[in-house]
Amino acid sequence: MLFKKFLLLIVLVTLAACSGAKDTTVMTPKEHFDYALEIYTDEDYQQALTEFQTILLQYPGSSVNDDAQYYLGMTYFNRDQFLLAAYEYSKLITNIPASPFVPMAQFQLAESYYQLSPPAPLEQSYSIKAIEEFQAFIDFFPMNPKVEESEKKIAELNEKLAEKQYNNAVIYGKMEYTKAAIQYYTDVVNNYHDTKYAPLALQNKIELLVQREQSREALESIAIFYNRYPNHPDLSKVKEIEESLIN
User: CA 20, 22, 23, 27: dihedral to nearest 10 degrees?
Assistant: First the structure.
């Protein structure tokens, strides 16, 4: 008897849930989108995915097509499905370039890759992709309020890339592969000169050049250090190295 009551309760709950769903087949595209957006706002992202995908399939040329495309990307983003979100944002940018959603789609495309960017020791292709997309956003929409945030995130990602290159150089140096270490330090200096790792890399490069008895190259790097980092805390150490080479 108790089991039958339990089954009846499940049936009643299911029917109540179904009765709350709306018949979208009688809606206009705008009404359907408004309904989907309401579901999205209520954070029922699984159902929102279904509704936005249905809108895109049923009304491919409607005025709400770009709205649904953008919010489909946002739904994936809010579900932490960042690759799928990036794909949907890219479709909007490519297929509906005149849409007013394009600026935010471009920012969100970059943000999706930013969210996928791993810690510095790991492979950094997503970080590089995020930088490219943030830079594209800045280039195409220089007056957008999100530009400042984009610039900060580019700087943060560059710091991470510089850290990885710097640590690679340190490892090669410890293994006494000095030529490879110098190359990695050079990459940090040339490609990430605005990061905290650039002056450290340049100093280590100078020390390795002295170790390899490449005095001319060491002095050239010292001149670069003076020019770029005249107030760096390790400036005195660099001056000591210079004096040892000159005297």
Answer: 170
Give the closest residue to 113 by CA, choosing from 142, 87, 75.
87
Q: What pLDDT is stored for residue 21 in this prediction? A: 64
For residue 36, give the nearest of 90, 82, 74, 79 by alpha carbon. 74
- pLDDT at 247 (0 to 100): 75
* CB contact set of 72 (below 8 Å; sequence gap of 6+): 49, 52, 53, 56, 88
Quote the radius of gyration of the chain (alpha carbons, Å): 28
Q: Which pLDDT belongs to residue 26?
A: 78
CA-CA-CA-CA torsion sign (149, 153, 159, 165) = negative
Residue 195 DSSP code: S
Show the low-confidence residues of the chain (pLDDT under 50). Answer: 2-20
Q: Where are the beta strands (DSSP E) in the chain?
A: none
A 10 A CB-CB count for 149 gives 14
Is residue 192 within 8 Å of residue 165, measured between CB atoms? yes
Half-sphere exposure of 113 (CA within 13 A, CB side): 25
Residue recorded with tokens 């150490």: 237
Q: From the CB of residue 12, how many other CB atoms can be counted at a distance below 10 Å?
A: 10
Task: Return contacts of 56-64, CB within 8 angstroms, 24+ apart.
Answer: 58/29, 58/32, 59/29, 59/32, 62/29, 63/29, 63/30, 64/29, 64/30, 64/32, 64/33
Burial label, 37 (beta-carbon count in 10 A; 0-12, 13-18, 19+): middle
